[in-house]
Amino acid sequence: MQLFVDYLPILIFFGAYFYKGIYFATGILMVVMPVVMVAQWAITRKLNKIYAASTALILILGSATLLLRNPLFLYWKPTVLNWAIGLAFLGSQFIGEKPFVQRMLGGAASLEDNQWLRLNQIWVIFFVFIGGINIYVAYTFSEPTWVKFKLFGMLGLTFLFIIIQTIWLTLAMNKNESSTTEVD
To answer: Which of 122, 78, 83 is nearest to 102 (CA)?
Structure first.
């Protein structure tokens, strides 16, 4: 459900873009994202920090896009967000007792400390990569290609990352189980 909520504004942006262009779609996105964030908070009484950061970025960079009539500001939004998340994940290895990925997945997976660090580093690499590929597409390809990449390419890469991470987690937990069984 959360993935749908996260991608709902992107779907609306996509439709608005092909209906009336980048500036219209940017304005629509600047309205939809805060509405979704408030609705999410009203239902759950929790604020999704990443979604809130994304909303703040769209308001700032979307405003620059509309005021200066330059879509490059909008193109940078996914990159800035992903790199900031990657930096936060990296920092979590040095600040606090557990890296972010362990705080998020610790209830669902049982790993050794070095495996949690490795998985956290994998997330850092993913966020840096996805931010880099976004800006590469934005500067190398046409605007319609970037819009399609933002919806389909980034979603596809995220699903691929989830699949790879799930395989890695399964292998790591099986390895841990087999070494525990051998010791017994």
So the answer is: 122
DSSP state of 152: I
**DSSP state for residue 38 in the 8-state scheme:** H
How many Å apart are CA 44 and CA 150, to the nearest integer? 27
**Nearest-angstrom CA–CA distance, 154 and 148:** 9
Cα–Cα–Cα angle for 52, 56, 57, nearest 5°? 115
* pTM listed for this prediction: 0.90
Residue type, 88: A
Q: How does residue 181 score in pLDDT terms, banded at 50, 70 and 90?
A: low
Q: How far apart are CA 154 and CA 102, in angstroms?
A: 24
Question: Tell me, what's the pLDDT at 3?
Answer: 67
**182's tokens:** 């051998």
Q: Are 13 and 29 in contact (CB under 8 A)?
A: yes
Distance, first Cα to last Cα, the chain: 41
User: What's the rounded Cα separation, in Å, for the pair 66 and 12?
Assistant: 18
Using CA atoms, how far apart are residues 117 and 102, in angstroms rounded to an integer?
8
Task: Map residue 93 onto helix, strand or coil.
Answer: coil
Residue 6 has pLDDT above 80, yes or no: no
Residues with Cβ within 8 Å of residue 72, at least 6 apart in sequence = 65, 138
Q: What is the mean pLDDT of residues 8-14?
A: 93
